[in-house]
Task: structure prediction
Amino acid sequence: MRGALENTVEMATATETAPRGTVLLVEDDRAVRRYMEVLLQKAGFAVISAADGLEAMKLSLSARFDLVITDAIMPQLNGYELCRFFRRHPRFMHVPVVLLSGLERTEAFKDETAMPDAFLSKPVNPEQLSACLAKLVGE
Result:
């Protein structure tokens, strides 16, 4: 788990005005999380990162973001449960959610209350990610 100082630095960076908005990135694999951070920053997004769904839920109550990208399978609180939280919370119910998974799409959508706006398979293709995010932010 990362230290509070690292979270603060990332949040401070993410709260600066980004041309395309701010992404709450939730990924438990540190290498994948860093890879996604770099892709998103190169695409013009500010990034707030969380190592699992519980950390993301806590960050969401104090940070501002325009969309969420979350891994499906994580410890503490998985991506489906996190998506369900965002869908039921009045402040976040309209925030687009992208679910990342190595599972087949049919397996991933068994629970309709956890339905994301988009689904991307791992490993994430940078061009697919960019196209998906452009569509979600209305570009």
In short: The helical segments are 4-15, 30-42, 53-60, 79-88, 105-108, 126-136. The first strand starts at residue 22 and ends at 26.
